[in-house]
Amino acid sequence: MSNRLEGKVAAITGAASGFGAAATLRFIEEGGKVILGDIQDDAGQALADSLGNAARFYHCDVTQEDQVANLVDMAVSEFGRLDIMYNNAGIVGAAGPIHTTPAAEWKFTLDILLNGVFYGIKHAARVMIPQQSGSIVNMTSTAGIMGGLGPHAYAAAKHAVIGITKNTATELAHHGIRVNAIAPTGMATAMVAGLSGDPSDIDGTIARLAATSPLKGRAGLASDVANAALWLASDESGYTTGHTLTTDAGTTIGATTNAPNFVEYTPLIREAGKRGLDD
C-alpha cells in the first residue's frame, strides 16, 4: 500500500527524534508533506533537509502557545492546508516520590505533556474547522491507562490527554474532524534508552525490552508508533474518533512474560470445589 497520505499536510511536534522522526519519515513515504516542530534545532533541520521539498522545520517549544500556533500557520503558508496534527512532543519529566516532587518540575512536566497537547488541538481546530476535515493525533501512554507505570506528573498528564482527546472528539466530530490518541508502553527510543544512562544505546534497549515483552522476543519500536499514527492520520481510520490505540504488546490487558492461568485443560470447576459435568 502506498500514497495513503497523498495530498495531505501534517504538523508534528517533537519531530526531530523518536516517535516524531519515525512518523515524519512514514508520512512522507506515504505521499504526505510535513512541518517538523521541535526545540532540537540542529537535528530537526537536518532531518527536514534530508527529506527535500516535502518537509520544513520550525523551532517549536510546545510550552509556548504562540510557537504552536505558528507551527500550524506555517503548514498553511508553506503547503496550503493542514490535514493532520500529531501532538507528539514529550519528556519523562518530574520523577520520584510524591512528597519530594518539586512544584516547579511538576508544572514544567504538565506544561509540555498536557498544555502542549491542548495548544496543538486548539490551533489545529482553528484551521480545520473552516475546511470541515482533519485528523488530530495525541500522544498519551499506557501510564495514562493504568496506575503505577510512570512517574506521577507523567501519569497525571497522560491520563488527562485521554480525557481531552475524548472531549474534543465529541465536539469536533460535528466539523468532520477526528481526534484520537496513541498509548505506547516503553519503546526502543532515545528517551527510554536514556533512562538506563545512554540515549544512543538503541540496540541495547531493544534487547532489554525484548527480554521482558509479553510478545516473545519482540521489543516495541518507534516504527510501531509511527505506523499507528499513520493509520489514525489516514482516511483508513475515517470512522474512528475518541479512541486510544495501544502499542503495548497487551500490557494494559494483563499480558506478561509469564503464561496466564488456565492455559492447560482441567475439568470444569463447579460449586464447592466439585469438578466436571453432571452425568
Structure notes:
By secondary structure, the protein is an alpha/beta fold. It contains eight helices and seven strands; from the N terminus they run βαβαβαβαβαβαααβ. Strands 3-2-1-4-5-6-7 form a seven-stranded parallel β-sheet, with helices on both faces. The longest helix is centred in the middle third of the chain and has 29 residues, at 103-131. The chain is globular and about 75 Å long. The model has no long low-confidence stretch (mean pLDDT 94).
Provide a short characterization of the protein structure.
This protein is an alpha/beta fold. It has 8 helices and 7 strands.
The order of strands across the largest sheet is 3-2-1-4-5-6-7
Q: Got a strand count?
A: 7
Helix content: 40-55%
At the first level of CATH, the class is Alpha Beta
Report the order of strands and helices. EHEHEHEHEHEHHHE
Percent of residues in beta strands: 5-15%
Q: What average pLDDT do the residues reach?
A: 94
**What's the helix count?**
8
User: Helix/strand/pairing class, anyone?
Assistant: alpha/beta
